[in-house]
Write a structure and sequence with these properties.
This protein has about 150 residues and is an alpha/beta fold. It has a single domain, classed as 3-Layer(aba) Sandwich (Rossmann fold), CATH 3.40.50.2300. The chain is about 40% helix and about 20% strand. Strands 2-1-3-4-5-6 form a 6-stranded parallel beta sheet, with helices on both faces. Strand 4, helix 4 and strand 5 form a beta-alpha-beta unit. The longest helix has 13 residues.
Length: about 150
C-alpha cells in the first residue's frame, strides 16, 4: 500500500522540523515550506494527497493558500493546525478537511490526515472541547468524526 503524500507548511522552523520527523513515520512527506506563497507553488508542482498547514503564516495564511489553490483547480484536502482553536469550526465550514489544535498534534494529527484523505471532516479534541464542551466521560461527539481508525 502506498503512503499518503503530504506537504507541510509551518513558519516556525523548529516546529516544521518536528512535524516532518513525526509525519515521516507514517506518511511520505514530499516537502515542507515556511510560508503560504511557497506552499501554493509547491502544491501545484507536487500535487500532494493532503496539505498540513499552520493557520498563520507569512505571505499567505493557510486558509488563504487553501482558497487560492481551490480557485485555480486544486482540491487538495487541508489539515489546518494552530495554537488557537479560534475560528476552527468556520475554517472547516469553508473548506478545510480538518483542524488540529497544536496541543493535540502528537495524538491526533496522523489520524486527521488519514481522515482528510478519505474526505471525512475532523476537529481535534481540544477544538471540540472549546466548541461544544467535551463530555466528562470522553464520549464521542456525533457532529464530528472521532473514531480511532
Amino acid at each position: 500500500m502506498n503512503k499518503l503524500r503530504v506537504l507541510v507548511a509551518e513558519d516556525h522552523e523548529q516546529m516544521r522540523r518536528r512535524l516532518v520527523r513525526f509525519l515521516c513515520l507514517e506518511f511520505d512527506v514530499v516537502g515542507s515550506v515556511s510560508n503560504g506563497g511557497t506552499l501554493v507553488d509547491l502544491a501545484v508542482s507536487l500535487n500532494p494527497d493532503v496539505i498540513i498547514s499552520d493557520v498563520q503564516m507569512p505571505v499567505l495564511s493557510g486558509p488563504e493558500a487553501m482558497e487560492f489553490l481551490r480557485r485555480i483547480g486544486f482540491d487538495i484536502p487541508f489539515v489546518l493546525i494552530s495554537i488557537s482553536s479560534c475560528g476552527a469550526e468556520e475554517f472547516v465550514k469553508h473548506g478545510a478537511a480538518a483542524f488540529v489544535d497544536k496541543l493535540d498534534i502528537g495524538d491526533e494529527l496522523a489520524h486527521a490526515v488519514r481522515l482528510a484523505a478519505r474526505g471525512i471532516k475532523y476537529l481535534s479534541r481540544s477544538v471540540r472541547s472549546s466548541i461544544v464542551g467535551e463530555p466528562e466521560d470522553r464520549e464521542k461527539d456525533t457532529r464530528f468524526e472521532v473514531s480511532s481508525a
